[in-house]
Amino acid sequence: MRLVLLGPPGAGKGTQAADLCRRFGVPHISTGDMLRESVKAGTEVGKKAQSYMEAGKLVPDAVMIGVIEERFSRGDGSRGFVLDGFPRTVGQAEALESLLARLGLPIQRVISFSASDETIVERIAGRRTCPACQTPYHARFQPPRKAGVCDRDGEELAQRPDDREEKVRERLRAYRDQTAPLVPYYEKRGLLRGVSAEASPDEVFRAVEKVLTALA
Ligand code: AMP
């Protein structure tokens, strides 16, 4: 199970990736989560990434390719993986392709989630995350047992600073200009499957399972 999840912010990539990784026992590689941790820890990568993230812009390819190479050097990718938020540019996709070819772990499927702008705005407005374990919640679609508190560790849930409306608009622009070209890129390679992300997380998960059955 070696997957890439593509889609605009708010499409539910993080939620689906976490569910898929639990189901298939493979690592969840979220570059957004990794960068947020690096910013929190004040590492060199965190310092380079912070201003781009705060502005809702993409972190430069050179930084991101270093991050992903370092992540794959841990070796657990041989069990399979779900990439969530990487690649986001054609340059990143090309670097990933050669890295995974070197490792003998080529991508088997790319799932492209689609959602309307209204859905994205509604999803992001209600989205909250545990600052400690990064578990995602949604006030309406995926509420925690106790309002405002993480089910796993009792931490107070927070809104990501880049989930504010004007930042979301910038992130959507980055998606359309820099990430959407990956749809024809992976289509050409016969790897792409489209899934509508408009339905509930459970229904989307079932649709994802359907497009993965050929791989099982
Ligand atoms: P995410 O949690 O995936 O929405 O990522 C949050 C932010 O981290 C993005 O808006 C970008 O600033 C940055 N980021 C995460 N992954 C990448 C990537 N592959 N390329 C460039 N920037 C990224």
Give a brief description.
This protein is an alpha/beta fold and 216 residues long. 48% of the residues lie in helices and 13% in strands.
What would your notes on this structure say?
- This protein has 216 residues and is an alpha/beta fold.
- It is 48% helix and 13% strand.
- It has 9 helices and 7 strands; from the N terminus they run βαβαααβαβαββααβα.
- The protein has a 5-stranded parallel beta sheet with strand order 2-3-1-4-7, with helices on both faces.
- α2 (31-41) packs across α3 and α4 runs parallel beside α5 (90-103).
- The structure holds adenosine monophosphate.
Mean pLDDT: 94
Count of discrete alpha- or pi-helical segments spanning 4 or more residues: 9
Percentage of β-strand residues? 5-15%
CATH architecture: 3-Layer(aba) Sandwich
Report the span from N to C terminus. 8 Å
Which parts are unreliable, with pLDDT below 50 for 5 consecutive residues or more?
Answer: none
- Overall 3D shape: globular
CATH class: Alpha Beta
What's the topology here?
Blueprint: E1 2-6, H1 13-24, E2 28-30, H2 31-41, H3 44-55, H4 61-72, E3 81-84, H5 90-103, E4 109-114, H6 117-125, E5 127-129, E6 136-138, H7 165-179, H8 182-188, E7 192-196, H9 201-212
Parallel strand pairs: 1-3, 1-4, 2-3, 4-7
Antiparallel strand pairs: 5-6
The chain binds adenosine monophosphate.
